[in-house]
Amino acid sequence: MPSYDYRCLATGTVHEVKHPISQKATTWGELCALGNLEPGDVPADSPVERLVSAAGVLSRGALRNPEPPCGTGGCGRGACSFAA
Asked: Residue 47 gets which letter from DSSP?
Protein backbone atom coordinates (compact mmCIF):
# COMPACT_ATOMS: atom_id res chain seq x y z
CA MET A 1 0.00 0.00 0.00
CA PRO A 2 1.49 3.39 -0.94
CA SER A 3 2.27 6.04 1.64
CA TYR A 4 1.54 9.73 1.23
CA ASP A 5 2.72 12.84 3.05
CA TYR A 6 0.05 15.30 4.16
CA ARG A 7 0.48 18.76 5.69
CA CYS A 8 -2.05 19.98 8.22
CA LEU A 9 -2.64 23.62 7.27
CA ALA A 10 -3.72 24.53 10.82
CA THR A 11 -0.48 23.38 12.47
CA GLY A 12 2.01 23.08 9.59
CA THR A 13 2.93 19.54 10.65
CA VAL A 14 3.53 16.82 8.06
CA HIS A 15 2.26 13.27 8.55
CA GLU A 16 2.98 10.14 6.52
CA VAL A 17 -0.12 7.99 6.01
CA LYS A 18 -0.55 4.70 4.13
CA HIS A 19 -3.79 4.26 2.25
CA PRO A 20 -5.12 2.96 -1.09
CA ILE A 21 -4.55 5.20 -4.10
CA SER A 22 -8.33 5.49 -4.50
CA GLN A 23 -8.62 7.42 -1.23
CA LYS A 24 -7.58 10.97 -0.44
CA ALA A 25 -7.94 13.04 2.72
CA THR A 26 -8.96 16.70 2.48
CA THR A 27 -9.59 17.40 6.18
CA TRP A 28 -7.78 16.64 9.41
CA GLY A 29 -10.60 14.34 10.52
CA GLU A 30 -10.35 12.28 7.31
CA LEU A 31 -6.57 12.09 7.65
CA CYS A 32 -6.82 10.91 11.25
CA ALA A 33 -9.29 8.21 10.22
CA LEU A 34 -7.11 7.02 7.30
CA GLY A 35 -3.86 7.05 9.26
CA ASN A 36 -5.12 6.09 12.71
CA LEU A 37 -3.82 9.41 14.08
CA GLU A 38 -4.86 11.10 17.31
CA PRO A 39 -6.79 14.27 16.39
CA GLY A 40 -5.67 16.21 19.45
CA ASP A 41 -6.95 19.80 19.63
CA VAL A 42 -7.06 20.35 15.85
CA PRO A 43 -10.63 20.79 14.54
CA ALA A 44 -11.73 17.84 12.37
CA ASP A 45 -12.71 20.17 9.50
CA SER A 46 -9.24 21.77 9.25
CA PRO A 47 -7.91 21.38 5.69
CA VAL A 48 -4.91 19.20 4.83
CA GLU A 49 -2.94 19.02 1.59
CA ARG A 50 -1.26 16.01 0.06
CA LEU A 51 2.37 16.73 -0.77
CA VAL A 52 4.12 15.53 -3.89
CA SER A 53 7.03 13.21 -3.22
CA ALA A 54 9.66 12.30 -5.78
CA ALA A 55 10.14 8.95 -4.06
CA GLY A 56 6.87 7.72 -5.54
CA VAL A 57 7.89 8.45 -9.13
CA LEU A 58 9.43 5.56 -11.06
CA SER A 59 10.07 5.08 -14.71
CA ARG A 60 9.06 1.85 -16.39
CA GLY A 61 12.68 1.23 -17.32
CA ALA A 62 13.72 1.31 -13.67
CA LEU A 63 11.34 -1.54 -12.94
CA ARG A 64 12.60 -3.67 -15.83
CA ASN A 65 16.29 -2.90 -15.30
CA PRO A 66 16.98 -2.65 -11.57
CA GLU A 67 20.78 -2.50 -11.98
CA PRO A 68 22.63 0.39 -13.63
CA PRO A 69 24.18 -0.39 -17.04
CA CYS A 70 27.70 -0.36 -15.55
CA GLY A 71 26.75 -3.26 -13.28
CA THR A 72 26.67 -5.43 -16.38
CA GLY A 73 29.61 -3.67 -18.03
CA GLY A 74 27.29 -1.63 -20.23
CA CYS A 75 28.56 1.90 -19.72
CA GLY A 76 32.32 1.37 -19.65
CA ARG A 77 32.93 4.95 -18.55
CA GLY A 78 32.92 4.43 -14.81
CA ALA A 79 31.32 7.84 -14.26
CA CYS A 80 28.81 6.49 -11.76
CA SER A 81 31.51 4.81 -9.61
CA PHE A 82 29.67 1.50 -9.81
CA ALA A 83 32.25 -1.27 -9.56
CA ALA A 84 31.96 -3.42 -12.67
From this structure: B
- Rounded to whole angstroms, the Cα distance separating 19 from 4 reads 8
The continuous run of DSSP H or E covering 17 comes out as strand 14-18
Q: What is the mean pLDDT of residues 5-29?
A: 93
Q: Rounded to two decimals, what is the model's pTM?
A: 0.62
Give me the mean pLDDT over the 25-31 stretch. 96
Task: Give the span between the Cα atoms of 16 and 8, in whole angstroms.
Answer: 11
CB 45 within 8 Å of CB 26: no
CA 56 – CA 53 distance, rounded (Å): 6
Cα separation of 49 and 12, whole Å?
10
Please classify residue 29 by burial: count the beta carbons closer than 10 Å to its beta carbon, then call 0-12 exposed, 13-18 middle and 19+ buried.
Answer: middle
